[in-house]
Amino acid sequence: MGNFDLVGNYFPIFFIRDGMKFPDLIHAFKPNPKSNIQEYWRVLDYFSHLPESLSTFTWLFDDVGIPQDYRHMEGFGVHTFTLINKAGRVRYVKFNWKPTCGVKCLSDEEAKRVGGDNHSHATQDLYDSIRAGNYPEWKLFIQTMDPEDEDKFDFDPLDVTKIWPEDIIPLQPVGRMVLNKTVDNFFAKNEQLAFSPSVIVPGIYFSDYKMLQCL
Description:
Layout: H1 22-29, H2 40-47, H3 54-60, E1 75-76, E2 81-84, E3 90-99, H4 108-117, H5 121-131, E4 137-145, E5 172-178, H6 186-191, E6 204-206
Antiparallel strand pairs: 1-3, 2-3, 2-6, 3-4, 4-5
Helix pairs in contact: 1-2
């Protein structure tokens, strides 16, 4: 049936809700075109005109903004997709990955020290853990919603700048992922893999949210 390429982030939300703004977002994060130096004032200047980005900035500058490594990092599908069963019944769905070893993050000072010693520290930690038999594991949870209930909330469930509150739409465990083997040739077995978020598998489809049209 193929592979479902779930594009995600370690935040459950995103900066923008309009796909037309995506090229401008990328340009804001690029280095200064004159000096080729990346400057935060350019990023902040652009997003100061987008109030919907404020929620994501609270995550970015919170304690969870700098993950300690991949093993202690959550993953979120961000977008709202749909699940479709054999009978054709549709449910909105969000995907959430939770590390079984817990979430750990770095402070600014710790990040400077750790990144300064080894800029590949997260990859090193992942590789060493697998080789030592301490296999990283994430549990997969979903949140589901009947499309008929979409207008019953005080937020747009399809809006990627909004979170689905877990006390209202609880997490449901559906599976797990364990990394128990490293590849023998990273270039041949990893870099040459071909995935596309526009390719879906039976039972999963896009929602009507316009940000998904960027895929």
